[in-house]
Amino acid sequence: MHEVPSWINAMSIAVAAMLGLNTALLAWLLYFSSRRRRREEWLRHLIELHSLFWKGEDFSRVRSWLACPESHATLRPILRKRRAVYDDESNAEPVTDDDYALISSIVS
User: Fold this and answer.
1) DSSP string of 56-108?
2) Cα distances (Å, whole numbers) of residue 31 to 17, 23, 65, 92
3) At residue 60, does pLDDT exceed 70?
4) What is the DSSP-derived secondary structure letter of residue 2?
5) Cβ–Cβ < 8 Å for 77, 92
6) What value does the CA radius of gyration of the chain take, rounded to a whole number of Å?
7) In this structure, are residues 92 and 84 in contact, taking their beta carbons and an 8 Å threshold?
8) 3-state DSSP assignment of residue 5
9) Is the whole-model pTM more than 0.70?
10) pLDDT band per the 50, 70, 90 thresholds, residue 58
11) Which of 98, 99, 94, 61 is nearest to 78 (CA)?
12) What's the confidence (pLDDT) of residue 9?
């Protein structure tokens, strides 16, 4: 049989090691690239929500509730009435149509 020179064996081992390292490096780069892309996507979504919140006219009342505790003084008793109805308390006041309109402005 014909024997393979030792330098060829050494080269094949070196090439296999380089391929293994390149594969590991590529996997590492892909992982961090996808991680960064997910983080950027989340950040873009947050920026979009933030701009909608501050520019949207529908949120003007909600913004005032967040900024000034006195401004949600009318909201607090309505939410308490709604909670009492939800908890099925026997002495719960009924929630009126106007109350529901205000509650619906929060969630929509």
Assistant:
1) -GGGHHHHHHHH-GGGGTTHHHHHHHHHHHHTT-TTPPPPPHHHHHHHHHHH-
2) 21, 12, 42, 55
3) yes
4) P
5) no
6) 32
7) yes
8) coil
9) no
10) low
11) 99
12) 85
pLDDT in tens, 5-34: 888 888 989 999 999 999 999 999 999 999
Q: Is 49 left (phi over 0), alpha (psi -120 to 50) or beta?
A: alpha
User: What does the pLDDT read at residue 26?
Assistant: 94
Structure tokens given for 50: 């933030």
Sign of the dihedral through C-alpha 29, 35, 38, 40: negative
Report d(CA 104, CA 40) in Å as an integer. Answer: 33
Q: What angle do CA 44, 47, 76 make, to 5 degrees?
A: 135
Q: Note whether 63 and 72 are within 8 A (CB).
A: no
